[in-house]
Design goal:
With 516 residues, this protein is mainly beta. The protein has 2 domains: 32 residues, no CATH class; 480 residues, 6 Propeller (Neuraminidase). Helices cover 10% and strands 34% of the residues. It has a 5-stranded antiparallel beta sheet with strand order 1-30-29-28-27, with no helix packed on it. The radius of gyration is 22 Å and the shape is globular. Bound molecules: MU-OXO-diiron (FEO) and calcium ion (2 copies).
Length: 516
């Protein structure tokens, strides 16, 4: 019997039920009572399971200093410790909703205001009595926006230029071993549209910024590396161009740096980059996954006659990486989103959020086991780690983070206009789940927090002591047609504000220490 059929056969009704491989192996465990869990909800509030509490760290529009403000639609959060009680956070500002900025009319004035809302924020935070807060006016506090000039780290020009104007669409990201952050430019086409290799427009810009600025879309869709203390950034052309969700970095047994990254678009691909160096991601070799073959296929023009035939040089391959990936036989996937390394096994987990074209509404988490557990290997096996659906109680897994006990904290992203509708009826608003892999309740999934209306949680990030989980609440009320018809008023009443929240509490401590 297939795993999924078997789960259905068991009649697992919702979260809080045993779904681990233990159960599949026939280990008979009676459900232990008193497992805290939330029922699905469509309320316009941040709901928390018993044993968790929350506080808002930053809201959209909060002043970071006399000049800079916290941008819109915060996403990825990265933590860079400065001392035991102070740190820098990098926070992506992925997108804008013109309804909440200055209005949907397309004027240069409105577009310029929107351009200031995206990019990222670097902020200093300090901890007093286990409570983190913003250090307003810290010399570290700064914004990167869609106006910030950023060089390409590549020996050749990209569409005639060595620099890009700004970064935007930063979704999730990653860390490097040398203390920088990676921010991944995802749905850049909503800002600047998209063209194919022949220059034909294949996606129109939804925000129509391109009516006011002649900026090539090829300058976006890159992984951006940022120094936390200076804000100095560069676009890593080496990792190729696509709707990058995140970049997860680790080391091969050889010591070389390996970065995994997925293209969050229906039937796009999963990539791996093996650096030439142990201290840089600027040059190396790019591969794409064939699940059928269990192989990483080279995207180097010198290795692939078909690429040699269709592209002038490696720079073209990097810019139109999707097209190159298809030519070499990459496996189309169900929107690869976040990537994390399982601390218990070393496996690479990838959320495949959904694929509406293939009628896969609930998504899954894919497990990749590299040969010899070596990220530098070019062979791997794969299987489904967890499947979304009515049985497991979650739909559309997206961002993930592990705690030191191997418990998997993950968020979901059902589109705002689909929440509670059709296949998503009964799932409630998007939520934060924990797949417990240690302690008495090993193998169960709990719904730990529920987002306000039309929001998704993104960017889960633990403080180094695991006493605080930083979490973005992104796009509450995103379907609001106007300021007079708000679909969410979270968090303060009135205009909804994307915000960073901090979760703490005895339940967080118990789970992350394996004592639940
Ligand atoms: Fe910005 Fe794929 O989520
Ligand atoms: Ca995402
Ligand atoms: Ca998402």
């Amino acid at each position: 019997m297939k795993r999924r059929d078997f789960l259905q056969f068991l009649g697992l009704a919702s979260v809080g039920t045993q779904v681990s491989t233990q159960l599949l192996a026939g280990v008979d465990k009676l459900p232990t009572p008193h497992l805290p869990n939330l029922a699905p909800s469509l309320d316009d509030k941040l709901s928390l399971v018993e044993g968790l509490n929350s506080e808002i760290l930053l809201r959209w529009g909060d002043a970071l200093n006399s000049v800079d403000k916290f941008g819109f639609n915060n996403d990825f959060i990265a933590f860079h410790p400065l001392s035991e009680s102070s740190a820098l956070l990098w926070v992506n500002h992925e997108s804008v909703n013109p309804v909440f900025i200055k209005g949907t009319q397309r004027t240069k004035e409105n577009v310029d205001l929107e351009r200031m809302e995206v990019g990222g924020s670097i902020i200093e935070i300090k901890k007093e009595k286990n409570r983190w807060s913003l250090v307003k006016n810290s010399p570290y506090n700064r914004r990167l926006t869609s106006f910030t000039e950023i060089p390409f780290a590549w020996p050749e020009k990209i569409m005639g230029s060595n620099t890009a104007i700004g970064t935007l669409a930063g979704c999730a990201g990653g860390y490097t071993p040398w203390g920088t952050f990676l921010s991944c430019e995802e749905n850049y086409d909503m800002f600047w549209g998209e063209r194919d290799r022949t220059g034909k427009v294949i996606t129109q810009s939804w925000l129509r910024w391109n009516e006011f600025y002649k900026i090539p879309p090829e300058h976006y869709g890159w992984v951006v590396e940022i120094e936390p203390k200076t804000g100095k950034a560069k676009k890593l052309v080496s990792l190729g161009r696509c709707a990058h969700e995140c970049a997860a970095v680790t080391k091969a047994k050889s010591g070389k740096i390996v970065a995994y990254t997925g293209d969050d678009t229906i039937n796009q691909h999963f990539y791996k980059f093996i650096s030439d160096s142990e201290s840089s991601l600027e040059s190396g070799k790019l591969y794409v996954a064939s699940l059928e073959k269990g192989e990483w296929i080279s995207l180097n023009i010198e290795d692939q006659p078909i690429l040699k035939k269709n592209f002038k040089n490696q720079t073209e391959v990097q810019i139109w990486m999707r097209e190159a990936a298809k030519m070499v036989g990459a496996t189309p996937l169900d929107r690869p989103e976040d990537i994390e390394f399982d601390p218990l096994t070393g496996n690479v987990l990838v959320t495949l959020t959904n694929n509406k074209v293939n009628k896969n509404f609930y998504g899954s988490i894919l497990k990749i086991s590299e040969k010899d557990n070596d990220p530098g290997s070019l062979k791997f096996t794969h299987e489904t780690f967890l499947a979304g659906g009515k049985n497991t109680g979650f739909a559309c897994p997206d961002n993930m983070v592990f705690d030191p006990k191997g418990n998997l904290w993950f968020t979901t992203d059902v589109a705002g206009d689909a929440i509670g509708q059709g296949p998503y009826e009964g799932f409630g608003n998007n939520a934060l789940y924990v797949f417990l892999r240690s302690g008495t309740h090993k193998g169960k999934i709990i719904r730990a927090a529920i987002a306000p209306k039309e929001a998704e949680f993104t960017g889960p990030c633990f403080s180094p002591d695991y006493k605080t989980l930083f979490l973005s609440v992104q796009h509450p009320g995103e379907e609001s047609p106007s300021l007079q018809e708000l679909t969410s008023q979270w968090p303060d009443g009135g205009i909804p504000k994307p915000s960073v929240v901090m979760l703490q509490g005895p339940l967080l401590d118990k789970i992350t220490s394996g004592n639940l």
